[in-house]
Every structure is written in C-alpha cells, then in structure tokens.
Amino acid sequence: MDATGHPSPDSPSDPGPEPRKAASIRDVAQAAGVSYQTVSRVINSHPNVREETRKRVEAAIETLGFRRNATAFALASGVTRSVTVLTSNTTLYGYAATLQGLEEAARAAGYSLGVKLLTPEDDLDRTLSSAADGGGLMVIGFDRLAASALDRVPENVPCAAVVEAPSHGRTPPRPAVWADDREAARAATAHLLELGHRTVHYVALPASVGTRRSEGPRAQGWRTALEAAGITPPEPHGGKGWDARVGYDAGQELARDPEVTAILCGNDDLALGVLRALHHAGRSVPGDVSVIGFDDAPHAEFVTPSLTTVRMDFQGLGRDAFALLRSLLESDYRPPAPTFVGTALIVRESTGPTDA
Fold first, then answer.
1. DSSP code of 33?
2. How far is CA 186 from the centre of its chain?
3. DSSP string spanning 320-350?
4. Contact 292, 346 (CB under 8 A)
5. d(CA 128, CA 112)
6. What pTM value is reported for the model?
7. Whole-number Å distance between alpha carbons of 97 and 122
8. 281 exposure class (CB count in 10 Å sphere: 0-12, 13-18, 19+)
9. 180-197, pLDDT tens digit by residue?
C-alpha cells in the first residue's frame, strides 16, 4: 500500500477486513430492549415515550452510530421528507445564517433540503409550482421578492416562513417566525441618544412589504425612539440595497454634514460602507461620529473600530421555522420550545459620547 492509500502494483490483492455494516433500526431496538416501533417514535420526537425509555434508545443510537436513511423512511411511511427553501439571497449574513439553522434542523430530522434562488425575472407561479412538488416549502421572506412569493404559495402546499417583524395588526399569510427587530432598533437608537447625541440618522434597508417608500421594522423602531424623545426624525438614507456599496454612498452624503454625530444602519454591511466613507472624509469613529450596525455578522467584531451592533440569532429563527413546517408535514409532531434567543445590543468601539 503506498502513501496515498491506493494499492501499489506489488501489493497482494487481499481487500482487508469487511467494512462494518451500518446499524439498522432493529439493531437499535435490540440493544435498547424495545420494539423498533418505539425506536421510530424516539427518532421522530413523538411525545408518547417515557423519558427513561427515550434515554435508553438515544444511548443505543449513540453507541451503534445509527443514522436514519431518509429515503428508506419516506418509502416506508409514505411521507416525503424533503423541503425546498425559497430565498432571493444566499450570501448576505442574515439569509445565510437563517439557511444554516434550517439545514441543521432538517438534517437532524432526516429531511433533505433544497434551495431555490428567486430572481426578479422568474415566473413566480411556475417557480412555486415546481418548488412545492412533493414536499414542504420554506420561505426566507426578508425582502419584497420573497414576501411576494410567500403571499402566492398555493393553499394546499405545506409552508412556513421566516419574515421581518410584521406591522401591528398584520398577520403573515403562513405560519412564520420573526425577531422583534423593531424594538431592537428602538433600543439601539435610544442608546445613542443616552450618549448625548442630539439626533440619530438612519441608513435604511429596503422594506419587504408595501410601497418602495415603506419603512421596515428597523426603520420604524428608529423613528419611534426619536419621536418619543421629542425629536423630528431626519430623512432616512439608503433604502436601495443591503450591501456595503449602498452604505458607502449614504455615508458619503452623511459625512458632508458636520451636524451628523450618530448613525444607525439597517445591517452590518451597510455600516461597513458607512465606516469607510467616514474614514475617507476624515471623520473619526467614534470621536466625530458614532455608528451602530445590525445583525452582528462575523466581521463586525474585527473591523477597525470594532462595530457596535444588534445581535440577531438567525440560526435560531431557522430552526424554529423548520419546527413549524415539520408540524404541518407530520400530524403527530409537536414543535419543541423555541430556540431563538432574541436580540441584544453589543456595544463595541464604534460608539461613544458626543461633545456636540
């Protein structure tokens, strides 16, 4: 045998020991001293299993290295264990982290997960029809295109979603989870006011619903904080995209106004562009201007100065959304307690008091 693990010409043809056979559900049942039906109930989180029995089965699963074959289960049970995720983006942090949470939960439950990327050129009805063929549908509805897709999912298709916090009195068209980013933005704005800033400017994300000038929940939270303090909100900037280039363009405009001392950004990518624009304009952060981002993307802690931001548990949202969808696909499944841990303001180096 050579160093790469391939047989060398002079090696004997003995194939070596037989590969270990994968453990079956009946092997687990025998090891745990229960029926294979009980093992199946444990695997599928069925509530009618005694805790002692559940622990014994889980220990046998761990010892034997059992992994359920999702395809075989689908054939045996008649349940199609597949989910298609509709999203317009897979690279921005909020979308990618939500997708990660969905994938983790789907894999743990024995579901296969596919992703369909939405584009403005799509025939939306045809896309929905093909995506929903034979399984469940999950929509990451953080933007106008995906929110429109969610509104048009056929009623007979099992579907759940992760969405922006809905406006008061508005209910998402399908079971959905969301973070209270409206309150998080209000708290972030209030923090800047408490530092002595006379007002806070906002670099906006595009809203997911309404007209092109509609405000999303983060903008609404910013506006609420200013109005509660008796401050007339300045005109928002941005609103044309989610990336650092949009933030840079907005930051250039804001940097020209010496009265600007505090900026809240709709996400961390926008904040990254704002920080660069302020640097190019010769305005220090946080000496001249304080900046807060949103989401706590991995790079936020490592830019200079490190970015104060609102931490969002997108993975938790993804896991909880999958639990909602699974409850629609499996009649005896009851979703566990939510895993989403909420939002938190993470104060770093990009914010400070003002002398203005």
1. T
2. 21
3. HHHHHHHHHH-TT----S-----EEEE--TT
4. no
5. 18
6. 0.75
7. 24
8. middle
9. 999 999 999 999 999 999
